[in-house]
Amino acid sequence: MKAVRFTGVFKPLEMQEIPIPEIGKRDILVKIKAAGICHSDAHYRAGISPVSFTPLTLGHEVAGIVEKIGEKVTNVKPGDRVCLHYLITCGDCYYCSTGNEQFCKQGKMIGHHANGGYAEYIAIPSRNAIHLPDEIPFEQGATLMCASATAYHALLKSRIKPGDKVAVFGVGGLGQSAIQLAKAFGASMVFAVDINDEKLKLAAQYGAIPINGKITDPVVEIKKLNAGKGIDVAIEMIGLAQTQKQALQSVGPLGRVVLVGLSDKNLSVNTYSEILGNEVELIGSNDHLLQELPKLIDFAAKKMLDTSQIVTRTIPLDADAINKTLDALEKFDAGVRTVIVP
Which one of 56, 119, 187, 287 has the lowest number of neighbouring Cβ atoms within 10 Å? Predict the structure, then answer.
């Protein structure tokens, strides 16, 4: 089969011909119909987040059709439409048994620690398959597995409640989902902070108040539009020290700041004025959980989460096209979400 693979830091991804993967008794083989290109993939290529081995097939946002099942698989059958939870875990350890499988010591993320979705087929444990309703296209189903799922988990971590005022820093694929989900949770105001006019226009369509960080100070503007007060929840999706700082400074007393974006830089914090004085909580949000995905799919099926405009471009399984998308992501100029359609 064809696969576009990572061969080393700072090197362009390469198209390779590799065998179709074998499956075990509890595994499934999925014919890939869509694979999203995430900003994390650009981080892997740049060496910000190291991968486990090379060559490696990237891609952790995956949807497709079940092609083959192992003899002990009962939850899906050949022909089923599925999207894939990207974390492969043991299923038996303390963290797995308590619903916190992202801390499983044997956990492997597809496209990072195991071969992923920039390919024609993928083999994965059947428990990672989530049924994808017919009304959700494969392209949108793929992005639900990271962009939307990570946003959903971050909002759950923030303990958002009806009436809260929320700011989302970075409104790419994750941020656009976070805006809609915050509204679904009952947020009374949602601010969208970015420097890309097209992303801000889309955020406004989803009911957010757009703030262009290139032409105004987001912290000053948020407080100005909120009667001079800090907000309740800030979600940082970019991973830049500047926007992490802005998120921290935008909240008021008892505010919750959730950091989602990957960064290799330290965050400098004034412990009294930014944390202790207002009893602000700084919360890390790490991926998402398998148990959260059926509810997320339900949100999308009921149109409470509209992902139709989040997929701004589709490209073929082509190394040049994928590398160009990763180049644009490194410059924060790649639209909302590009999806590979093999």
Answer: 287
